[in-house]
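re the bet — no i am not wrong, look at it urself. input seq straight from the record:
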Amino acid sequence: MGRPRQVLDEDILEAARACFIEHGASVSTETIAARLGVSGPALLKRFGSKRELLKAAFGVAKTPPWLGLMEQGPDERDLREQMREVAGAIDAFFRKMVPALAVLREAGITPEDMRGKDGELPPPARTYETVAGWFRRAQEQGRLRGGDPGVMGGMFLAGLQYRHFLAHITNQTVPPEEGDPWVDRMVDVFWHGVAPEQKGDEKERG
C-alpha cells in the first residue's frame, strides 16, 4: 500500500476556496478532498470541522496579507509607485474575498466571527489604523499635503474595494488583473488629491 499523499495547508485552503465559491457553503468535505486526492476525514483531522476549514480558507478574523506592506514605511522610493504597489496587492485581495461574501453569509459567519479573539484589535480596525498610519507618516515626511490621514486612508481603501462590491451585487465580472489599467488610473486620480501642495495652490486659496 502506498504512502498517503502529503498535502500542504495552503494547497488545502486554495482548493477549499475554489470549491466553496463554486458550490456554496454546503459543499461536502469529500468534494474538496477529491480535488486534492485525499480523504474527507483527513481534512477534518487537519482543521477540526468544515466550518473551521471555511473560516481558514477565507481568512476569517485574520489580518489581510497585504497589511505588512503598509505597517512600515513609506520608504525612500517614489511615493506614487509605492501606492501603486500597495493598491495592486489590495485589489488582488478583494478579487478573492468579495466573491466569498455570499458563501460566508450562507455559512452563518457573523460579525462576531470576523472580529477575532476578545482583547485583540479586530482586523478591520487594525487595517484602517495601519493604512491611516502609512498616510500620516508620508505627511510627516513632507511627501503629501496636509489633511486627515484617516480620511485619506479610508478613501484609498474604499476606492479599491468599491468596484469589486459593485460587480458582486450586480453579477458583473471584473476584468482580469493582467492588462487591467483600473488600479493605475485610480492611483493617478487619488494622487492628484493628496500630492504635496504647490505654491500656486496656496496663492489660489489665499
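see?? The first helix runs from residue 9 to 23. told u. also The chain has twelve helices and no strands. so pay up
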